[in-house]
Write a structure and sequence with these properties.
The chain has 3 helices and 2 strands. It is an alpha+beta fold. The structure holds flavin-adenine dinucleotide. The site of flavin-adenine dinucleotide (FAD) has 16 residues, from α1 and α2.
Length: 75
């Protein structure tokens, strides 16, 4: 059993009730990722958001089908 003077024990220098930072990982920066980032910025204060996107740019399906989205009929 670890002793209080044992160097492997770590006592945090803050109250336990202090709110922890929320850490969010979002995979994909399509519409869902953009909305998640927007909502996090609007509704959260103490957070870290890391977004991963496999494409060179954000937008997901809406970017991939940009030409179709800009066409007259939208299809
Ligand atoms: C032709 C077409 C027309 C559509 N028209 C409409 C419409 O008019 N209105 C409507 O509401 N919806 C439409 N949709 C549905 C559309 O897919 C959704 O509206 C919206 O784009 C879904 O957003 P999303 O963020 O969930 O997914 P996506 O837009 O697919 O985004 C997912 C993102 O995650 C990334 N990703 C995936 N895997 C990984 C990984 N392993 N690591 C990192 N990044 C990753 C992708 O590259 C992509 O950028 C249409 C879909 C298609 C195909």
């Amino acid at each position: 059993m670890p002793h209080i003077n044992d160097p492997v024990m770590y006592v945090q220098d803050r109250p336990q009730c202090d709110p922890d930072q929320i850490r969010i990982i979002h995979v994909g920066m399509g519409a869902s990722g953009l909305l998640a980032a927007h909502k996090a910025k609007k509704m959260l204060s103490n957070y870290e958001l890391v977004c991963y996107e496999k494409n060179d740019t954000i937008g997901g399906t809406w970017f991939v089908y940009l030409d179709a989205a800009l066409s007259d009929d939208g299809c």
